[in-house]
Amino acid sequence: MAQKKILLTGGLGYIGSHIIASMEDPSLVVIADNCSNCDIEQIDRLKQLVALERHQVYLVDCTDLNAFEVIFKENEIDTVIHLAGLKAVGESVAKPIEYYTNNLNATLNVLTLCDRYHVNRLIFSSSATVYGPQVSPMNESMTLLKTTNPYAETKAISERMIEDYCVVHPEMAATSLRYFNPVGAHPSGIIGEFPKGIPNNLLPYVQQVASGKRPWLNVFGNDYETSDGTPIRDYIHVLDLASAHLCVLKSPQAGYRIYNVGTGVGTSVLGLVHAFEDANQLTIKTKITDRRSGDVAESTADVSKIKKELGWVSHYTIQDICKDAWNFEQKHSK
Ligand code: UFG
């Protein structure tokens, strides 16, 4: 009988590559990626870390049902970890149709093929952004309100599609993981986040200031109602995030579940800048500018549910995050 495989859509991306690098048996992995936000060399980087064969990688777009289906015909897929999707909040406001078309069709195709090929395990890459402007710490029982951008809406709608699918497929074990702010890199420095163009996110921008690629960091507002006036986020090391996926893989349970994946600890923008300076013994030039539209003052996770039900907790500290991020930047900045 053919070996049962785990399909990672978007498996060459930032989160997917760290999940694969954390797996006990990467030979079980099949990757679907259209390389829209990564480059093909990512396969060679992963091969430096784990025994991955080229035939395990399918360069397909999950929104192309026929091309995507080939993977299910050629492999006995047992589990799908669905990570593929467009993910820039600001871009989604400018290109809503592109975001709805891409992200929702990808999820619909995943569910269509799970149905057709009797795949009963699914982990969905969701986001804390589905909570919108609610009070932190946010917990899974909060009612989701209208979010602030199309990207967030695609995550919230995808979650509902999966939940509705589970109603008519009681054998399905589906889990949405709501990521807070994934940051950092593999300690080897071989894989990490490779932003295209100007980074949108805080830590990749800080890294580029440290390496001299950018002259200073714009701090988007210091007049929020927080301890130092800058917004607070729950930054989670990407390897902790990867371990949460592996934890869900080990404990499948029929039905639909939702878990926050964060640390439960908040760090302000300036707090992260200072942690980066301390951890790496360097100075980051900053300038305070206007607020960025759509930002909330605080977004931190209530992580009690995933701890109680799965025994998962984060391990990496902000110092680890900053060291690994800088190690990665130094290896890749040209
Ligand atoms: N920030 C700056 N300067 C920058 C970049 C960011 O001051 O150059 C600030 C932002 O204003 C915000 C904080 O840093 O206050 C964090 O911003 P990020 O862009 O790094 O992260 P967000 O919290 O805005 O969003 C991220 C992901 C989303 C995800 C969300 C979940 O980008 O995809 O976390 O909480 F949905």
Describe this structure in words.
The structure is a single chain. The chain has helices at 14-22, 42-49, 65-74, 89-94, 96-116, 150-168, 202-210, 238-250, 269-280, 304-310, 318-332, and strands spanning 4-9, 29-32, 57-58, 76-82, 121-127, 173-179, 181-183, 217-220, 232-233, 235-237, 255-261, 267-268, 286-289, 298-299. It is an alpha/beta fold. It has a domain at 4-183 and 235-262 and 302-309: NAD(P)-binding Rossmann-like Domain (Rossmann fold), CATH 3.40.50. Strand 2, helix 2 and strand 3 form a beta-alpha-beta unit. It starts with a strand and ends with a helix. Bound molecules: uridine-5'-diphosphate-4-deoxy-4-fluoro-alpha-D-galactose. The site of uridine-5'-diphosphate-4-deoxy-4-fluoro-alpha-D-galactose has 21 residues, from helix 7 and strand 8.
SSE layout:
Layout: E1 4-9, H1 14-22, E2 29-32, H2 42-49, E3 57-58, H3 65-74, E4 76-82, H4 89-94, H5 96-116, E5 121-127, H6 150-168, E6 173-179, E7 181-183, H7 202-210, E8 217-220, E9 232-233, E10 235-237, H8 238-250, E11 255-261, E12 267-268, H9 269-280, E13 286-289, E14 298-299, H10 304-310, H11 318-332
Parallel strand pairs: 1-2, 1-4, 2-3, 4-5, 5-6, 6-11, 7-10, 8-13, 9-14
Antiparallel strand pairs: 9-12
Helix pairs in contact: 1-8, 5-6, 7-11, 9-11
The protein binds uridine-5'-diphosphate-4-deoxy-4-fluoro-alpha-D-galactose.
Residues 87, 89, 127-129, 180-181, 200-202, 205, 217-220, 231, 233, 269, 292, 295, 299 line the site of uridine-5'-diphosphate-4-deoxy-4-fluoro-alpha-D-galactose.
